[in-house]
Specification:
Blueprint (H helix, E strand, L loop, with lengths): L1 E2 L10 E2 L9 E11 L2 E12 L8 E3 L3 E7 L8 E7 L6 E6 L4 E4 L2 E3 L2 E7 L7 E11 L2 E13 L23 E2 L3 E7 L7 E6 L6 E5 L5 E4 L2 E3 L2 E7 L7 E11 L8 E10 L21 H4 L15 H13 L14 H9 L6
Parallel strand pairs: 6-13, 15-22
Antiparallel strand pairs: 1-2, 3-4, 5-7, 7-11, 8-10, 8-12, 9-11, 12-13, 14-16, 16-20, 17-19, 17-21, 18-20, 21-22
Helix pairs in contact: 2-3
Length: 352
């Protein structure tokens, strides 16, 4: 549009553009100035629209990396987790750790990459040792990955009594998944963002496959060999708001320990434009006492991180399992055990 649309003698004309629903690219127009008894003049107007670039967004695909070894035995094999840019632009990130027995590499990267985690049990006493790997990026919140190293006494009793000897190195392949629960949220007028989990087999030659009884769950890839990252995508269910439950079964080759494993999938679909949150899925952590998680002493170990559930909370609950500190009873069942660790992992990344 132009302002004013007419005048007398000298003056200035303001040209305003309103892109509206125009597509990206170059658009041409012209403004014609005419006067009685004088030739008209034309001014060309060019509008160039480029796609908006979303800011970088740092993401990691694991909340917890666990190792186990016998005291005095060879160090366990390395594990990995993925770092990715879930936004736009260029993301430069750095990785650091807070324990001398823990090593991560590389120390820095750009956009998507894999970080290798190594541990050394040399000189460590029997017990569970905990640490945190922190990934930071310019202009985006940092992400944390909890690391645990369980050093088992060869006597199986902390060196003070009988018991069967603890194997210092597992000889068979063992199937592990990085999480037992994936929770998705969306509105009917939106889409769910994909989520990921990782598969560890302990032996890079072990094959595995994924299956689900729910047609609205898609996994990529569906088969593989050795460690891998699996992307999970969901399709909204027939335009209906509500809570939907599903599961992914991970099955490894015959003879693999801990096979199969199940990853539960929870999909919360809200009406268009949002609305009140839906009730938690059946079987969710803390269902018997829905306020237990909020009462528990989570987030106390991560000053400056706001109220987000992160790796510091995972480490704090793992330590509470050892000490029996009931202030970390996030399931509300009157005890602190592996169920509380699973509950924190299931809500990893949530803002309380």
């Amino acid at each position: 549009s132009v302002t004013p649309t007419s005048g007398v003698n000298d003056g200035s004309v303001a040209v305003d553009v309103r892109p509206g629903a125009l597509a990206t690219g170059t658009h041409q127009a012209s403004v014609t100035v005419s006067a009685s008894g004088s030739p008209s003049h034309t001014v060309a107007v060019t509008l160039t629209l480029t796609a908006a670039t979303a800011p970088p967004a740092l993401s990691v695909d694991r909340a917890l990396v666990s190792f186990r070894m016998g005291q005095g035995a060879a160090d366990p094999g390395d594990q990995t987790f993925a770092v990715s840019n879930a936004g736009g632009g260029t993301l430069r990130w750095n990785v650091s750790e807070d324990a001398s027995w823990l090593t991560v590499r590389p120390a820095a990267g750009t956009n998507d990459g894999m970080v290798t985690v190594s541990v050394s049990g040399a000189g460590l006493p029997a017990g569970t040792h905990t640490a945190v790997v922190t990934v930071t990026g310019d202009g985006t919140p940092s992400r944390t990955v909890a690391v645990t190293l369980e050093v088992a006494s060869p006597s199986g009793g902390g060196g003070t009594g009988g018991g069967e000897p603890v194997p210092q190195e597992p000889s068979a392949a063992s199937l592990e998944v990085s999480t037992r629960d994936l929770t998705f949220s969306a509105t009917l007028d939106g889409q769910t963002a994909p989520r990921t989990f990782t598969i560890q087999t302990g032996d890079p030659t072990v094959s595995w496959s994924l299956s689900s009884a729910q047609s609205w769950i898609t996994t990529t890839p569906r088969t593989g060999r050795g460690p891998a990252t699996v992307t999970v995508q969901l399709a909204l269910q027939g335009g209906t708001a509500g809570t939907f439950e599903g599961a992914i079964q991970v099955t490894a080759a015959s003879g693999t320990a801990n096979s199969p494993q199940t990853v539960n999938v929870h999909l919360n679909v809200l009406p268009e434009g949002g609305g009140e949150p839906l009730p938690p899925p059946s079987g969710s952590p803390g269902e018997g006492d829905p306020e237990a998680f909020e009462r528990a002493n989570v987030d106390a170990e991560s000053p400056g991180s706001g109220s987000r559930v992160d790796a510091y909370d995972v480490v704090a609950v793992i330590r509470a399992v050892e000490t029996g500190d009931l202030s970390y009873d996030v399931t509300g069942d009157g005890k602190v055990d592996s169920a509380d660790v699973d509950a924190v992992l299931a809500r990893f990344g949530e803002v309380q």
